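job 3f2a | input accepted
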Amino acid sequence: MTRSGQRIRILVADDHALLRQALRMLLEAQDGLEVVGEATNGRDAVEVAERLMPDVILMDMVMPGLNGIEATRQILKRAPGCRVLILTAYLEDERLLQALRAGAAGYVVKNSDMEELLLAIQSVFRGNTYFSTSVSDEISVNEVMMQAKQTEGRAGYDLLTPREREVLQLIAEGLSNQAIADELVISVKTVEAHRAHIMTKLHAKNRTDLIRYAIKRGLVGLDSDDAGETDSDRRAV
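job 3f2a | predicted structure (237 res):
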């Protein structure tokens, strides 16, 4: 329990079923913690968070359909009382910067021990910001936090609208224009318009450039954070 006797209600968002199940078991074994829901991707996380209003959300960074950064941004617009704790394999200043700009309250790498994760949950629940010890060791957190607060000089990805960011991720995942239209419940012409705007803002010449940009940006992963089977396995049609 917290000092006030209140249980901390937690939502776990990760596309790997084994990790979600393991986290649920470990967290529910702790006094004062309750896992109230799970989400398999960013879009599910937004819907479940808005419906359940958890205190803390453990958010994976790379998920299909809608990544954890964009999900965080959308959740905090719809449910500003939620506190998002990014749980990821990535230890890079650019990823941390993205998380902070989206409004995340903390950033914990997946090789952290359970004691640190519990400390992070308690910390963000109380309204503080928390970074893994390994993050603080490798990254100049203060410098990144200052960058996150800056609004001038932003370009590229920062100029994309929320919908354009969703379209960019789906393009990078290999979905066709029709598949993207079906996924987002919009017309193919609207998808094509979004794609044209994205290419202009990112100075991309073709679809391949967009995919390379998305991979470099971390919208889709090709390493350990995406390894293994997931609950969503979609292909372009």
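job 3f2a | The chain has eleven helices and six strands.
job 3f2a | closed
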